[in-house]
Amino acid sequence: METGAITGYIDVAQIVLYAFWIFFAGLVVYLRREDKREGYPLESDRSLRSGGRVRVQGFPAIPSPKTFLLPHGGIVLAPREEHDAREVRARPTEAWPGAPLEPTGNPMVDGVGPAAYANRAEVPDLTWDGRPKIVPLRVADDHVVESRDPDPRGMTVVGADGETGGIARDLWVDRSEPQFRYLEVEVKGASGPRRVLVPMLLVRVDGWRRRVTVNSVMGHHFADAPGLANADQVTLREEDRICAYFGSGNLYAASSRQEPLL
Question: Which regions of the chain does DSSP assign to beta strands (E)?
C-alpha cells in the first residue's frame, strides 16, 4: 500500500478533494441565500393572481431575518416582507406572464418603466456627523462656485425643444464629495411658482448664452416635476423620484423617442 493510502481505494488526496467539493457547494448555497436578503420573495403575475399564496423565492429559500444597526440610529431587518401597494398605471401588451407593460397615463408622473422609483425612507441622506448631506448653497454657505466656472443661478432653463421651463435659482451640493448634485429651478405650477430639482448630470450650462439646457425633457415637463416636502433638504425617496422623472424623459418626453431607430 502506497504512502498516504487509507485503503486500497481511498487516499488522503482523494478525501481532501471530496472535502473541497463539499465546502465549495456549501459556500455557493450560503452566498446564494445571502444575496436574497433584498428583493425577496418576488412578486409575479402568478402570485398576484393567486392572492399571494405563491411564494416566489427559488432555491435555496430566503434566509431568516437579520437585524442591521443603522449608523445614525434605528434598525432594519433583511429580508423583510414588503408589498408595494401603489397602483401600476400600465397594462400588459400580451397575455403571457412577464409581458412588457404599456403605460395608460403619463408614465413620467405615474412612475412606470424607466420612471419607476423605490419607496425609500422619507429621510435625507446624512453625513458622518449626522447633517443632511445634500443641501442648497444657501444652507452650505461654506461652499461656492469655482470662479472659472459659469454660475447657472439666474439663467433660463430650457428643454430639448428650446422652450423655457424655468429659472435656475440655486445649486445643491453634496457635502461629502463635494460636488453639485442638483440644480434648483423655479417653475410655474398650477397654484403659482414653485421650485424643483434637476439632476446635474442631465444639465448643460452655457455660460456664453446664459442658458441651461436639459435635453432629457421638454420645456413643459418642468412644471410636472416632483417637488420637495422641505425646501432645504431632499429625502432618499424624493431623490429616487426626481432622478426617475427626468431620466425617463429620454424615452417618454417625446413620442418619437419611443419608436425603434430602424
Answer: 66-69, 75-78, 90-92, 101-103, 134-136, 156-159, 164-174, 179-189, 192-199, 204-206, 211-214
SS3 content of the chain, % helix, strand, coil (to 5): 25, 25, 50
CATH 3.90.50.10 fits 134-258, yes or no: yes
188: left (phi over 0), alpha (psi -120 to 50) or beta: beta
Q: Are 217 and 159 in contact (CB under 8 A)?
A: yes
Nearest to 73 by CA among 124, 120, 130, 119: 130
Tell me the whole-structure pTM to 2 decimals: 0.81
DSSP-based three-state secondary structure for 56: strand
Query: What confidence tens digit (pLDDT) does each residue in 26-62 have?
Result: 999 999 999 998 888 877 766 555 555 677 888 888 8
Name residues whose C-beta falls within 8 Å of residue 171's C-beta, 6 or more positions apart in sequence: 136, 137, 145, 152, 153, 180, 182, 183, 184, 200
